Fold this sequence. Notes:
Strand order of the largest sheet: 3-4-9-6-8-7
Helix content: 40-55%
Number of strands: 22
Shape: elongated
Number of helices: 26
Oligomer: single chain
Distance between the termini: 40 Å
Strand content: 15-25%
Radius of gyration: 34 Å
Amino acid sequence: MLFELRLAARLLRTRPLFTAIAVATLAVGIGANAAIFSVIDAVLLRPLPYPQSERLGSLYTRYLPPTGYDYPYFALSGPEFADVEARVDAFSAIAAYGFSFQNVTFPAAEAERALTMQVTAPFFDVLGIRPARGRTFTDAEATRKEGCFAVLAHETHEQFFREFAGAADAIGRTIRLDDTPCTIVGVMPQGFGFLDDRVKVWTPLTIDTTETPINRQSHPLQAVVRLRDDVTFERAEMELQSLRAYWAERFPDHYGKGHFAVTRPLHEDIVGDQRQALLVLGAAVLFVLLIVCINLSALLVSRGEGRRREFAVRQALGADRRRLIRQLLGETILLAAIGGGLGVLLANWMLEGLLALYPERLPGWQAIGIDTGAMILAFALVLLTGFLVGLIPAMHATGVRLQGTLKAEARGGTATRRALVVRSGLVIAQLGLSLVLLVGTLLLVRTYQHLQRIDLGMNVDRVLTFTVSVPEGRQPDEAAARRTLAAIAARIEAAPEVEAAAAISSLPLVSAGPPDDFIIDGRTEPAPGSPSWNARYIMATPRTFDALGITLKRGRRFTGSDGPGQPLVAVVNETVARLYWTGDDPIGRTIKYFPRETSPSIRIVGIVNDVRSLGANAAAPPAVYVPYEQAPRPGYDGRSMTFVVRARRDPASVASVARDAVRSVDAGLPIANVRPMQDIVRAAMGQPRFTTTVMSFFAVVACFLAALGLYGILAYGVEQRAREIGVRIALGAGTGEILRLVIGGGMRLAGIGILIGVPAALVVTRLLRGLLAGVTSTDPLTYVAVVLIFAGAALLASYLPARRATRIDPMVALRAE
């Protein structure tokens, strides 16, 4: 084989243009596959970096509220967590956790807003990870409220030493979290993360398991579990079903309404809805590589026609067919090897672009790069593409008939009909595959356009957002903390650059607010198992609707007089009015939150338009807005609020105004997450934009290769039929007849490709249904548009060789004979 490779190298050097084209197309195909595979491997294939990670699972409750909104993965309450610990034997360990943003202060440094994580004592044991230094939390530290203890991320530990230079060890020293001093007891290993690599500090989580109605119905806890060695997730689900029966019997009013516990593998929980988009992109790059292989095979078949005499002579001199096939495969494998090497270099650049475009936070502990797995894939693709590209041309070129070939060459004969059939079949396959890819891409493009046209229910132009939190350690009184944040909003609004300023507990597209059941005064409560009344609970200052551009439909908004000590009021959205007051007017009616015996009545004073707070492709959930300073619902203190500031001009111009206002009210409060609302909208559209952008790139490459393949076969056909065309012209054939001859042949091939590609697309694009919105996988307009695009591309690819054919000089063609 070494001799064949040396011979192949010499032959490829004699055809530099062909070699460059072949290597470049293979590099694009192999590089794209290596780049996409690196992402798929990191997200979907690689196990989580925890011991026996396949035994780790996420635990949720499932809640089917009466409104018809399905929350399939909902947090647990404290009593529910205790019930799982006591009654489910499938788990060897269980831990609860939660995320929050806190003000983190290092010694002699200003506070900064950072993501922290609250965990129960077994959390690190459940994951099977030990600290790099010190220890984690004891059961006593996690169950008592006195004292504060912290475990630092490795990066936070490094930052600690930068801020507190000269310290021998961080263990035993103190940082402040929300102005509360916390003793550092441990440091986690470098690269450790769980769900979000931005976490800087872990602190103990205390669970309230007191059995009260409000505590059982409050759901603040996420949970991670580890299965026992002999237990599967299916068996765990069976035990959770038994727990559901216990809940339904003991608490029929709550669990009779479709509330139960579920678990699923942690890896599946982390991947979420990224799986389908990545698999679609993986299939798309495989399509591109297959089209590249077919394209090169067609070129090699055409090139092999010029070597028929060479192979016939070599056969006459005693070379067997296997030797000739080995030589041709050696050429294509060498081409693939060079293309693969260049493709790996290209893959690094492609991967950087993919990660820059990627909208989701990929798991921070999974290093994504062109690693050993990607190199093995590239090597496998080199062998596979070399074999696929070379097999058909090799079989065709070495299947010559000795005497017939030599006689045809002596006569200056044209290409064999067999070669024409092979090349035509390869071009048709290219066209069909490209059509499938283009249909899928156009469906995603139309989905993205549909999402962009959807009215979100708010006006995000000129709006700046940021978050401020007043920790309990700084201001113990909740009402005083709310007054502080309200004063900041008022101070910002007084600036001449500001049109409106407000604060809201749940910013649309970032958080829809906690779903909460309520009671409608004067109505009989729904019976157990019947739909209850449920809506998102959102606290807001009076100018919130103005700042976000939410339209008042009926009634009134909040005013400055709706404050503490005044009658409690609420504004609902149109979905609440439609669901719970069908054919009636909710304005003037009153509602209560649980517990019903002690909660005050809240009067509905207005109705505003729906806001698609869950995303452009999700219907607006029912929402109840209450005045921030009244805070009528126990349990929601409003210490952390997102400010929305509508600027008169550029939103960036009010960032300094906001910072000055916060400092003037309380200089110790940091602001975080400063960004325009338009950036938040773009981020919410990130997944469809990413998938559409990448698919569009691959579709353009595929269509270009298909058109190039069609052009190549027609151009080669014109060259081979020069004598025939010259005779036709000599006999009086006009330019139109020659154009029709060549273009007609090209359009016939395109027509066959379309007839094959359309049914294939109807089948394949069913895989995209989960990614589509506002369009179906069988959308006729999309298919018509794709057919027209293909017909236009085929016409252009056919016209260029046809024009060349019309310029053939019949005397030159005949003299060549």
